[in-house]
Amino acid sequence: MTTIAVLGAGKIGESLLSGLLKAGRAPSDLLFTERFPTRAEELTKTYGITHVEVADAVQRADVIVVAVKPQDIEPLLDEMAPNLPSGRLVVSLCAGLPTKLFERRLTEGTAVVRVMPNTPMLVGEAMSAVSGGAHASDADLALVEDLLGSVGKVARVPESQQDAVTALSGSGPAYFFYLVEAMIDAGILLGIPRATAADLIVQSAVGAAAMLREGGGHPVMLREAVTSPAGTTIAGIRELEKHGVRAALIDAIEAARDRSVELGKAHETDEPA
Ligand SMILES: NC(=O)C1=CN([C@@H]2O[C@H](COP(=O)(O)OP(=O)(O)OC[C@H]3O[C@@H](n4cnc5c(N)ncnc54)[C@H](OP(=O)(O)O)[C@@H]3O)[C@@H](O)[C@H]2O)C=CC1
Ligand SMILES: O=C(O)[C@@H]1CCC=N1
User: Fold this and answer.
1) 37-65: b or e for each residue (b if 16 or more CB lie within 10 Å)?
2) Distance (Å, rounded) from C-alpha 27 to C-alpha 227?
3) Nearest-CA residue for atom 36 of ligand 1
4) So where does NADP(+) get bound (predicted)?
């Protein structure tokens, strides 16, 4: 059985561990590292998984998933580098960090796969995009796709698109949560109790998502079907257009892409990201 170690069990690391357990993986196949003992204890208690030190994790696991913030990568690479045996598969979930960074800092020839997942992994509904580095084989990519396929959907993309993917689907859930939050506020303004407004909006979001996925209709057609002549929806759409919401979303996603590029550049030395 493949042993998987997650280095940095924060929000996304925990989502992955929890998702893998829900998908049927045994706790004995999972290891994790964390800096704070209380956080480590909490995770062991919740999931029955084993906390180890970084050196131990990279020696014991077949697949090493890096899930620390990009800003924390350098000290982690310093810990990993002297302990990583050859033949291990390193999977980075870090926004912005190119596979070249890991290849440069770790054992010569190490296979690295860059992944951009998202937090719906927690409920088996992740969208993950994977790209192989210079030494990643098709078998390595297939293994990572299988792993992430157990907690959601997976797409293979060229690494040159990973910063854009990070902005779209990595950050994407936050933008949907933001819209839901704003729509619940609108309900409160209109005198609907918060709990009722939340039920109305969350179920509308779930229903709209199911139509987009299962109905296969184009979003424009789905929206038009809700937009009656001289009706309520067009009155609302006019306000969205007046306030430039479409342009704001496009700008927001472009800014997120630019930030991902910047995070990668912070770790460049001799080679471009
Ligand atoms: N959150 C998200 O939606 C997504 C995040 N990502 C990527 O995942 C990565 C993690 O993000 P996120 O989970 O949100 O961040 P978190 O801060 O929640 O998690 C990172 C965890 O790593 C721990 N950590 C840092 N350095 C080390 C180390 N040397 N050894 C062991 N543990 C360490 C941190 O501990 P401490 O608390 O002490 O700092 C923290 O618990 C980032 O690179 C991000 O770009 C990718 C897709 C989506
Ligand atoms: O905000 C971030 O940097 C991370 C990457 C994608 C989602 N969250």
Assistant:
1) eeebeebeeebebbbbebeebbeebebbb
2) 49
3) 35
4) 67-70
Examine the pLDDT at 273 and tell me if it is beyond 60.
no
Q: Which residues are registered as beta bridge partners of 50?
A: 31
Residue-wise pLDDT tens digits, 24-55 = 999 999 999 999 999 999 999 999 999 999 99
Confirm or reject: Cβ of 110 under 6 Å from ligand 2: no
* Pocket lined around ligand 1, Cβ cut-off 6 Å: 7-8, 10-13, 33-36, 54, 67-70, 72, 75-76, 93-95, 116-119, 170
User: Which residues contact residue 16 at a Cβ distance below 8 angstroms, ignoring those fewer than 6 apart?
Assistant: 6, 65, 67, 93, 117, 121, 151
Report the C-alpha gap between 77 and 56 in whole angstroms. Answer: 14
At residue 100, φ and ψ (nearest 5 deg) are: -60, -35
Ligand 1 atom closest to the CA of 166, numbered from 1: 47
CA of 8 to the centre of ligand 1 (A): 5
Q: Quick check: 271 pLDDT over 70?
A: no
Percent of the chain whose predicted confidence (pLDDT) is above 90: 95
Report the nearest atom of ligand 2 relative to the CA of 116. 6
Q: What is the pLDDT of residues 187-226, one digit of tens each?
A: 999 999 999 999 999 999 999 999 999 977 899 999 999 9
**Ligand nearest 93 Cα, by number?**
1
Amino acid in the structure at residue 245: V
User: What ipTM was predicted for this assembly?
Assistant: 0.98
